[in-house]
């Protein structure tokens, strides 16, 4: 089993290397055409995640959201697609119908983003700072596991909520070498909506995580002289 695991691990590493090389080629080609492509992967940290339902409430602090997005645009504006994943904390809720720690929030969205190819300001002699801001619209789904009537008491039944509209705005700074758009990003995110669903075992369930601070790895092309 260990041999197969090592082989699978090496195959995955090779595929990842080829994917990064392919993405780097796309970035350099796009830059030569006066356009920019970039990807972002990171984690958002919410100070408080608050859930409410008929008969009670629950809080999780801090709460983490993991995200990835891909963008394509010109020298200042880009459009993109992406997704977020958040684990919902309901450890202290007494309900045997669903499996604890199995409630998850998924978001998929389109984004319009300001990200300048030319740095907003210099940082030292070789560093650069770029201001970035934008908005996202899309939809969200909840996912959880609950007990199956045919295999009770095992949690074998997987359920999804109905898709619902979601939106958010963000602003922050990206730090990178002066002639390279790859680096680190620090953003403040605001989600105005209340996430809700009707078919969850906890009646009238809602979730709020309005503000979060995200840190991410920014992968983009080099700037030619």
Provide the CATH topology of the largest domain: Porin
Beta-strand segment tally: 14
Low-confidence stretches: 1-9
CATH level-1 class of the largest domain: Mainly Beta
Radius of gyration: 21 Å
Distance between the terminal alpha carbons, to the nearest Å?
51 Å
Strand order of the largest sheet: 1-4-5-6-8-10-11-14
User: Portion of residues in helices?
Assistant: 10-25%
Class by alpha and beta content: mainly beta
Order of helices and strands: HEEEEEEEEEEEEEE
Indicate the mean pLDDT. 79
Shape: elongated
| Fraction in beta strands | over 45%
Number of helices: 1
Which CATH-level-2 architecture of the largest domain?
Answer: Beta Barrel
Main β-sheet description = 8 strands, antiparallel, barrel
Explain this structure.
- It is a single chain.
- The protein is mainly beta.
- The chain has 2 domains: 1-33; 37-219, Porin, CATH 2.40.160.
- The chain has one helix spanning 2-32; strands at 36-46, 49-53, 56-60, 63-73, 77-87, 104-114, 121-123, 127-146, 157-160, 164-177, 183-190, 195-197, 205-208, 211-219.
- A hairpin with a 5-residue loop joins strand 10 (164-177) and strand 11 (183-190).
- The protein is elongated.
